[in-house]
Predict the 3D structure of the following.
Amino acid sequence: QVQLVESGGGLVQAGGSLRLSCAASGSIFSINDMGWYRQAPGKQRAFVAAISRGGSTSYSVSAKGRFTISRDNALNTMYLQMNSLKPEDTAVYYCNTYPPTYGSWGQGTQVTVSS
């Protein structure tokens, strides 16, 4: 059963922007803090940003000041607005709970930043 679905990735030039979406099942979204993670080629999956049920946010050092995480509890959807993108942001982006305790990751969405 698919319970986490990421979308919105694509190919952009350095300095450009993308808005990612994460659609989650209500059973996950309604009771958990949520987060975004990414995995670049040859690297481990890494934390990007998180948001609590009440809207408090936290960011990785690389994301702070450029990315904005948000959530719409009524729609069971989380977003990641990414501005001033850099080639090092290239990765597959995933959503999950925060901490990522849900065992079944989604397919992710590919973000490629060219320069």
Notes: The first strand starts at residue 4 and ends at 7. The chain has a mean pLDDT of 96.
